[in-house]
What does this fold into?
Amino acid sequence: MAAVIPLPLTVLHEGRQETLFPTLLQDGSDAVLVDCGYPNFLPFLEEALQALALTPAALTGVVVTHHDDDHMGALSQLKRQYPHIRIYAGAGEVPYISGAKTSLRLLQAEKLQPELPPEAQEWGRAFCRRLAAVEPAPVDCLLRDGDVLPWCGGCRVVSTPGHTPGHISLHLPAFSTVISGDAAVVENSRLVVANPQFALDLPAAEHSLEHLRSLPWDTCLCYHGGIFRRPAETV
Ligand SMILES: [Zn+2]
It folds into this structure.
């Protein structure tokens, strides 16, 4: 039976507790993970999958919504250990995921570094080192807006640029669900643009959020914030 399953991973990251929400798309033919956490997250993924009586060996694919380290960090390790897993990503993100181009987030951090107050300088340098250490990974399948993958009764790729230029979200009409990646996050029970100050193109990010809102869905699965249910229309 097909299912769309959020896999909340609560971990201590850089001294603070953080919950990330990768999602598993499971049906009779495929088990596809959407986003995979920071580098070294493989043990956490293994644990989360184990709770479903699965291992990463059962995965047939991983979709990466964009190239930030909390979404693609574990990708290279996952692919190395389980080479049969097909990696999917939006065409615009592929150069950054595969390492052909320098991470735009790293370039942004390096540019902002001189503007940080003295007490944040060391944190900024550590952040840059962390981004530079993310291992690139090969992408097997390039996705474009409107592509429909067969998973879970049909999974449509929705281009949602702004947070990064090639960011994608996924729409699963059979489940009345969207998987937003970082195109929408839940804050104070509202759907908002993720970290607007770090959006690489804020107007595009705002437009993408509106586009996501306009789609027919009841549930939005956000990588940061988790499950958001659309409030019932007031008549
Ligand atoms: Zn993120």
